[in-house]
Amino acid sequence: MEYENQYQQALGPKYECLLFDVDDTLYPFGSGLLKNCTKNIEEYMVQKLGIDEMEVSEMNSAFYKHYGTSMAGLRAFGYDFDYDDYHSFVHGRLPYEVLKPDHVLRSLLLSLPIRKVIFSNADIVHVNKVLSKLGLNDCFDEIICFETLNPTKSNVQDQPVLTDTSTIAIYKEGPAVLLPETPIVCKPFEDAFSQAFKIANINPQTTVFFDDSIRNIQSGKRMGLHTVLVGSSQRREGVDCAIESIHNIKEAIPELCQIDDHNKEHDLQMFSRNLGLQTSVTA
């Protein structure tokens, strides 16, 4: 029996889960949503947080570079604001109409008999809107998003708001400067991956991770995931595979096709076994 179990495991699929980012991964970078999102973030920084309009662009770039999201950077530097208000301002005004149903991707995802999970830094309202516009609402088994990893607001204790000049200086001096920690849990920080694995019961060793961010991909690789960089054909450190479009999933990971073949073979074996039992009973 032990040898039989080992044999069955050898025949089993290499991957058990597909983990997907959303923005600029499930739809092309050329949609323009990122440009509009950046514009909304910088307007929020000026209008809601009173940051100098002449500094917001460089500050925003610094936050994204060091913290993965602008929100995480703002909170690290002591800015206090309502998360729902932020998301409403930044995502609520996006031109979602530019996204159209992706019938090719929908068919592709539904053809893969394997667990599929969303892993996004965005809020649940935004994620659902994007999936709805793309026609992919029912293609995923679970969603890990901002609210999943940040169920309650954490306050930065005794952290004064740093001046715009201080923030720019940190950005220009580079990683040698000790950056303040952020209370926001998000990619590319490894803690976000650890929590996502635990919440969604994901084994990174049998999971393929799709993301457009090289930093997220490299973090995922360090956490044990098989990584696919979307939106580029150039492989870099930490990238197992690079594809121009999410439509190239099967070409990039041929093993995914074998999963379908394995399931079909298993179903055929079960059918034959049941048929044999019925024949024996009849005889």
Automatic annotation (TrEMBL):
The lineage of its organism: Eukaryota, Viridiplantae, Streptophyta, Embryophyta, Tracheophyta. Gene3D superfamilies: 1.10.150.450, HAD superfamily/HAD-like. InterPro entries: HAD-like_sf (IPR036412), HAD-SF_hydro_IA (IPR006439), HAD_sf (IPR023214), Pyr-5-nucltdase (IPR010237). This is Pyrimidine 5-nucleotidase. Transmembrane segments: none annotated.
